[in-house]
Recover the amino acids of this structure.
């Protein structure tokens, strides 16, 4: 498996319930908890993201299509949030107890990637991680306003 | 609110404030030093009540949106449970800025404030096991992390008033 370069970027899909007044909220970066009623026997351990530079043009449109292909029903009122890999990792390390080796974004297939190293911390650290990611958002695009190419 | 309004008519404004405050205090308070910042400790003044009512309206409006905006993979049972808990918490906080309210992928409701008072980030997370987590990152980077639940908060408060 390949890791995304720290100079590159990743996209996180944020649901309509995870944004308000054009701002992305910390809820967008919380890992799912296990829920046997929904068939999830374990907590989510990685954050699902998409590698921005996998596409050479029409990035947002292509990533939206990639999400739909993975059966993620993107909502027109949802957002795609763009973050820099290296800056996000550095800010998490600076603000929390995470060590540099454990944080990385690994490509799963095509643009689909996982952000590793965010799981297994207490709520104190989760606060710092989720707030660091929220503050590191460089750009957001509303799904409904992305031109389909 | 209905109780407050009926008492307002019956006893007049001054008395209604007292009842209003008592009603709020009997519901909830926070533990530790954060309580002093968030919770009413004196008789609420008219403008505070108006602000409180206005914020409650905005919170209810936000929840009206969230009720229909949830995605299929967000658990509605968890959402409804944590929403009820958060509404009870928020109805008792003395805040003059409405929070942003979001729902994580598990369905848990989170209220948060950005750059509010001396915190650059503060939030309240309500869990489906009835625990309530208060967190804040102050401007000087000190952190607050308090876990409690409605019952223990009420018991603690009753011992103090």
């Amino acid at each position: 498996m390949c890791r995304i370069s720290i100079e590159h970027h990743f996209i996180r899909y944020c649901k309509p319930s995870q944004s308000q007044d054009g701002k992305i909220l910390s809820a967008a970066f919380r890992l799912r908890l296990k829920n046997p009623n929904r068939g999830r026997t374990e907590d989510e351990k990685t954050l699902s993201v998409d590698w921005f530079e996998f596409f050479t043009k029409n990035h947002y449109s292509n990533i939206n299509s990639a999400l739909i292909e993975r059966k993620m029903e993107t909502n027109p009122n949802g957002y795609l949030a763009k973050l820099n890999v290296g800056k996000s990792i550095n800010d998490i390390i600076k603000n929390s107890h995470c060590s540099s080796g454990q944080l990385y974004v690994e490509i799963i297939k095509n643009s689909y990637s996982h952000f590793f190293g965010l799981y297994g911390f207490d709520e104190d650290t989760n606060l710092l991680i989720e707030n660091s990611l929220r503050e590191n958002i460089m750009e957001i695009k509303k799904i409904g306003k992305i031109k389909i190419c | 609110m209905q109780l407050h309004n009926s008492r307002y008519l019956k006893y007049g404004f001054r008395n209604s404030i007292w009842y209003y405050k008592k009603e709020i205090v009997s519901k909830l308070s926070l533990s530790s030093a954060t309580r002093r910042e968030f919770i009413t400790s004196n008789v609420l003044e008219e403008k505070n009540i108006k602000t409180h009512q206005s914020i409650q309206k905005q919170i209810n409006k936000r929840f009206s949106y969230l009720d229909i905006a949830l995605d299929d993979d967000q658990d509605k049972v968890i959402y409804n449970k944590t929403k009820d808990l958060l509404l009870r918490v928020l109805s008792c906080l003395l805040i003059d800025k409405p929070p942003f309210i979001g729902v994580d992928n598990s369905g848990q409701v989170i209220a948060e404030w950005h750059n509010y008072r001396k915190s650059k980030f503060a939030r309240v997370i309500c869990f489906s096991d009835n625990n309530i987590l208060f967190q804040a990152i102050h401007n000087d980077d000190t952190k607050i992390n308090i876990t409690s639940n409605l019952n223990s908060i009420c018991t603690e408060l009753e011992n103090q008033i």
Observations:
- Chain A has one domain: 9-144.
- The two ends of chain A are 29 Å apart (CA to CA).
